[in-house]
Automatic annotation (TrEMBL):
Pfam entry (one): ADH_zinc_N
Ranges for domain Enoyl reductase (ER): 15-320
GO molecular function, one term: oxidoreductase activity
Name of this protein: GroES-like protein
């Protein structure tokens, strides 16, 4: 078994140009609670781009391997690992050394994979056993690699996938091409937010009783929160899960908007390992298939994958195949 791997590292934080490919990165010996994984696929998040650029004052461990989301196969385990065996197919969890039911904070995420701990854009990795869960048996590695951040956050926000729970799904997107894909996946209503600036009011009108939606999953932060408030119904919930943009025209909602709109505004980051395991069981039982972007990237194409995601040319998760 090789003691090294092929990997990408961040030599700085000047964007994708700071990514460097390493042919032989040394792997550490297994500690008592460590698990060695052959990584087959990894997916990208906007967090990875932000880290590469040093946005939001994010700092890194020097020459860290970026990426937090991956799926692969266990090759070896430490002497005190009892939840995994060689041959198990697993997904990574972004945080490390946390209790199974402990919610992640920004500090926990900042100390996690792809920022302070070597991440997933490599062929092999040694991870603490708290950074892994068993992957659903019905998924490919490409599909399972999408679950770590986006999938788990959606599960945490919705307490299950919306279509599987028989909810009416109102989706927003930026193009007619992406709208067609959402329609093919079963979304009941689709709004192009670039063409329909008051999409919150429109979404409210599309709710079955016209009183607004029960749950809004808001990934845009300040750039979308005002419209989310217009969309939500009294006693509904807005789950804040992202920081993708700035408030238009300086229109920054404040905490009193929760009273004005009679809604709950809930911040959430990822989900716990307990939630991850429950989600994976549900995915396998209901044979749910995550959506992967039509263009896969090879390990040598990671820089191109970063640019592809940065330019918003993707639909759903961007995956790199490392095996």
């Amino acid at each position: 078994m090789s003691s090294s791997c092929k990997a990408w590292i961040l030599s700085g934080q000047e964007g994708p140009k700071s990514l460097e490919f390493v042919e032989n990165q040394e792997l550490p010996p297994l500690g008592d609670h460590d698990v060695r994984v052959r990584i087959h696929a990894a997916s990208l998040n906007h967090r990875d781009i932000a880290i590469a650029k040093g946005a939001y004052n994010l700092t890194i461990e020097p020459n860290v391997v970026p990426g937090s989301d991956a799926a692969g196969v266990v090759e070896d385990i430490g002497s005190s690992v009892d939840g995994f065996q060689p041959g198990d197919r697993v997904c990574t969890h972004l945080t490390s050394h946390m209790l199974d039911d402990a919610p992640a904070t920004f500090a926990d995420i900042g100390a996690g994979l792809g920022q302070r701990i070597h991440g997933t854009l490599r062929t092999h990795g040694v991870f603490h056993d708290t950074s892994l869960v068993k992957m659903p048996g019905n998924l490919t590695f490409d599909e399972a690699a999408t679950l770590t951040c986006s999938g788990l956050t959606a599960w945490n926000g919705l307490f299950g996938f919306s279509l599987a729970a028989d909810a009416t799904v109102i989706a927003t997107t930026s193009s007619d091409e992406k709208a067609a894909k959402l329609r093919s996946l079963g979304a009941h209503h689709i709004i192009n937010y670039k063409a329909t600036l008051n999409w919150g009011e429109v979404a409210k009108g599309l709710s079955p009783d016209g009183k607004g939606v029960h749950t809004v999953i808001d990934v845009g932060g300040l750039s979308t929160l005002r419209q989310s408030l217009h969309a939500v119904r009294p006693e509904g919930m807005i789950a804040l899960t992202g920081l993708l943009g700035q408030a238009p025209d300086g229109d920054v909602p404040n905490i009193m908007d929760g009273l004005v709109h009679l809604c709950t505004i809930r911040g959430l980051l990822l989900g716990t390992r307990t939630q991850f395991a429950a989600m994976n069981q549900f995915i396998e039982k209901e044979n749910i298939k995550p959506v992967v972007d039509d263009r896969p990237f090879g390990l040598e194409e990671v820089k191109e994958a970063f640019e592809y995601l940065s330019q918003q040319r993707h639909f759903s998760k961007v995956v790199t195949r490392t095996a």
